[in-house]
Design brief:
binds magnesium ion; alpha/beta; seven-stranded mixed sheet; binds adenosine-5'-diphosphate; about 35% helix
Length: about 280
């Protein structure tokens, strides 16, 4: 028996990464075979002198759900915020590498960042409805665009609330404040607002972390319904959630991509011991 091929005899990647060594990510073929909506290529990011992302290459399949997992501080939110250039607002930030949306660089000279963010709706950990009515929350992106046609606004409002599985709960109180909704409803309201501008990509950063199990279940059902119409990139620290909602899972550690493949493979037969240790809760 050739035990030198046993993964357990290989030096630990986690230890190598902790020593600052570059380690090649383990990318399953299925990921590369899928049509990408977003291609992150050899992407590096620094907060001042501190490097937070190291040489990340990650293709995000179109109209499917991709989960980013990894211990707290490994760079999941940083990566998510890079994709719609939300990080641009941070002082001292520098980046290197490329991110393509449908084949076009998001960093191209003249790229319209406002337009980019419309194409990539974002939902955060804590629901952040605006202090205005449910109706105005949803149509906010259209108002910014100067849309005044009441019929258009009403239609988009209904469509988006239906899309976010909230319509039936709020259709009789559209002019009440969005702040009066429960936490789970507020988060679905934020998803409705995100889809009102008809984005291609939805970026969800731990969207259920402030919600109870029932509200979390509703958001997970919603993600399942949105699959197919939107490319979804979701950060979650909840392994069960990643395995329930996503088609693909990327495991990150200390700012690097470690393993990326179909969710069933990542959770049932990962190629790397480090991934297995993380998804089975042995560290993190
Ligand atoms: N605005 C910021 N300024 C400086 N450092 C930051 C900033 N945001 C995040 N970081 C650092 O970058 C690393 C990655 O953070 P983050 O992307 O929030 O990780 P995660 O979402 O996986 O928990 C951490 O070390 C964190 O402290
Ligand atoms: Mg985070």
């Amino acid at each position: 028996m050739n035990i030198s091929n046993e993964p357990h005899d290989q030096p630990s990647r986690i230890a190598e990464i902790a020593d600052g060594k570059a380690v090649k990510a383990e990318i399953h073929d299925e990921v590369m075979a899928a049509e990408p909506a977003v291609q992150i290529q050899e992407f590096n990011l620094w907060y001042g002198a501190k490097q937070a992302l190291h040489n990340i290459t990650l293709h995000i399949p179109r109209n499917q759900v991709t989960a980013l997992i990894g211990p707290s501080g490994c760079g999941k939110s940083t990566l998510l915020r890079s994709v719609n250039r939300m990080n641009d607002l941070i002082d001292g930030l520098s980046v290197q590498g490329e991110i393509l949306l449908r084949g076009e660089s998001i960093f191209a000279p003249g790229a319209d960042v406002i337009e980019l963010r419309k194409r990539m709706g974002m939902v955060f950990q804590k629901p952040n409805p605006f202090p205005m009515s449910i109706f105005e929350n949803v149509v906010f992106p259209l108002r910014i665009d100067g849309q005044r046609d009441k019929k258009v606004l009403r239609e988009v409002c209904e469509q988006s609330l239906r899309g976010a599985a909230l319509w039936n709960e709020v259709k009789d109180r559209l002019h009440e404040s969005g702040l009066g909704l429960s936490g789970g409803q507020q988060q679905r309201l934020c998803i409705a607002r995100a889809i009102a501008s008809d984005p291609e990509v939805l970026l969800l950063d731990e969207p259920c972390s402030a919600l109870d199990p029932l509200a979390t279940g509703k958001i997970e059902d919603l993600i399942d319904e949105l699959r197919g119409n939107y490319t979804i990139l979701i950060v979650t620290h909840n392994m069960q959630q990643a395995s329930r909602v996503s088609d693909f899972t990327a495991f990150m550690y200390l700012g690097r991509l470690i393993e990326y493949g179909p969710t069933t493979q990542i959770f049932t037969k990962p190629r790397l011991r480090e991934t297995e240790d993380y998804v089975t809760g042995r560290f993190g």
